[in-house]
Design brief:
The chain is α+β, with helices and mostly antiparallel strands. It has 15 helices and 19 strands. The protein has 3 domains: 246 residues, no CATH class; 146 residues, Protein Transport Mog1p, Chain A (3-Layer(aba) Sandwich); 45 residues, no CATH class. The structure holds zinc ion.
């Protein structure tokens, strides 16, 4: 959960059919290059604010160096290219029109070499040079499904706090078609190869992602990766053909050097996003904590933390930041905010009033919607107001309300000393001993931050294999 920022409005006026700089084919593009860059720049601000920039200057500089080498040899060397590692645990990479390229810190431990990093960046560069994002944006505008119109038709619940973020996210996580993905593979492999990296890195990368995808059904803790990048079975075969066509050259792989950079990289939730430990969500930067109900599954996304019982859920609890007001709102303003927010979500107050929760001022109320009942607390801690809301179907509310009350009452602030002790998991190294299995190694850390299948995949192996004795492998350790 991180803080949110304001609104972005993009006006697009001109309309043109241009020659695609990467493919040479004519194609629809409503955006001039200047507009494309402006669109990307606005969305880039939103992505940085929402996901956060990973706080590691070394990694930022390294990814920028590898990316820039290829961007300068691409079909559009003069764009204002930027390469950023965002502070997200999911395994992903994405691009915005205008030359804004991102990898998540979550993908880093799964890359086996610098060549694989180069190929993933090359693939994303290609989405920009071949105008995949810009032309998808243009098509949306033309068909009247423009993002602005969509937003008016489907206003966000809880007062439209998303603003321009929806646009940034939908641009960043566009589902490109099969042809666009293949084109990006082809161009990306070419950019990597032309800049001195082994194009076979793309094959290794796709194999790893394929294994992760397979494992994610069964193994807990595997990130929901590359939703924007479908992996058709024959894509790897197609890339192998491309690599053969590129032919051998003086091509860098740098696997050992790359692995040497990984120890210390944050694994899973970061301090900046807040960390789930057992049943409790703790946020050492905001210095708040909330205890979720026993047995519920907690998921910490960028915008909020939610918890639901396993299986068919009739109830959920949500924690999110509502606003940052200096000094915290006075009682009348707090009451007013609660009413405005819930009215905007089309919820009618049944009862409500001022109270304190573990020493923090709060407004707690029960609200009825068309099909749901909500128990919501607006809690002021420091200069920030938080919303803790239990939502249940009208039928389920009766049995859920005790759980909701307990969760709301568990909200607490923490001291700086307690906050300082909360550290994330990190990538570490381990020398394999005789008799070790992926399962035994994964089980040796407590609480277990990674499953055996994911651990094997992180080391470029399959779960069925044996870790090679005396090899230095990647593991996840307590910070
Ligand atoms: Zn792609």
């Amino acid at each position: 959960m991180v803080r949110r920022y304001g609104l972005v409005v993009i006006a697009v006026v001109a309309m043109a059919c241009v020659t695609n700089p990467a493919t040479g084919r004519p194609q629809l593009n409503l955006l001039s290059e200047a507009q494309e860059i402006a669109l990307g720049r606005e969305a880039d601000q939103q992505i940085r604010a929402e996901m956060g920039v990973y706080d590691d200057a070394g990694w930022q500089a390294y990814v920028t160096r590898v990316g820039m080498a290829m961007a300068k040899k691409s079909h559009r060397p003069n764009l204002p290219w930027s390469f950023v590692v965002v502070d997200a645990s999911a395994v992903n990479a994405f691009a915005l029109p205008g030359g804004f390229i991102y990898v998540t810190r979550g993908i880093l431990p799964f890359l086996q070499s610098e060549a694989e990093l180069a190929n993933v960046l090359g693939h994303e560069i290609a989405h920009v040079t071949a105008l995949h994002g810009a032309s998808a944006y243009s098509k949306q505008q033309l068909t009247g499904l423009g993002l602005g119109l969509g937003r008016i038709l489907a206003p966000e619940r809880y007062g439209g706090v998303f603003g321009g973020l929806e646009m940034a996210m939908s641009l960043a996580f566009l589902k490109h078609g099969r042809d666009a993905e293949r084109e990006a593979d082809r161009l990306g492999v070419g950019y990597a190869s032309a800049s001195g990296w082994d194009p076979a890195g793309m094959v290794g990368l796709l194999s790893t992602l394929g294994r992760l995808s397979e494992a994610s059904g069964s193994s807990r803790g595997v990130p929901n990766f590359l939703t924007a990048h479908p992996l058709p079975e024959d894509r790897i075969a197609a890339v192998k053909d491309l690599v053969t066509a590129e032919g051998p050259g003086a091509q860098t792989v740098d696997a050992a050097e790359f692995s040497g950079r990984l120890p210390g990289v944050v694994w899973g939730d970061s301090r900046e996003q807040g960390i789930v430990r057992g049943r409790e969500f703790v946020h050492p930067i905001l210095r708040i904590a909330l205890r979720f109900p026993d047995g519920w599954e907690i998921s910490n996304s960028a915008s909020q933390v939610t918890a639901q019982p396993a299986g068919e859920a009739q109830a959920a609890v949500v924690l999110r930041v509502v606003s940052n007001a200096s000094g915290g709102p006075a009682q009348t303003a707090r009451t007013q905010m609660a009413r405005t927010q819930m009215a905007a979500a089309k919820l009618t107050e049944v009862s409500g009033g001022e109270t304190t929760i573990n020493g923090q001022r709060a407004y707690v109320g029960t609200y009825r919607g068309e099909q749901e009942v909500v128990r919501a607390a607006f809690i002021v801690a420091g200069s920030t107001t938080y919303l803790v809301a239990g939502v249940a179907t009208s039928q389920a509310f009766g049995s859920a309300q005790g759980t909701f009350a307990n969760t709301i009452e568990s909200f607490r602030t923490m001291t700086q000393a307690e906050a300082d002790q909360i550290q994330p998991f990190r990538v570490g190294q381990y020398s394999v001993r005789s008799g070790d299995t992926w399962t035994s190694i994964a089980s040796s850390a407590a609480p277990r931050p990674i499953g055996p299948a994911t651990l094997a995949i992180m080391n470029g192996a399959t779960a069925a294999s044996r870790p090679p004795v005396s090899a230095r492998i990647r593991v996840v350790v307590s910070g």
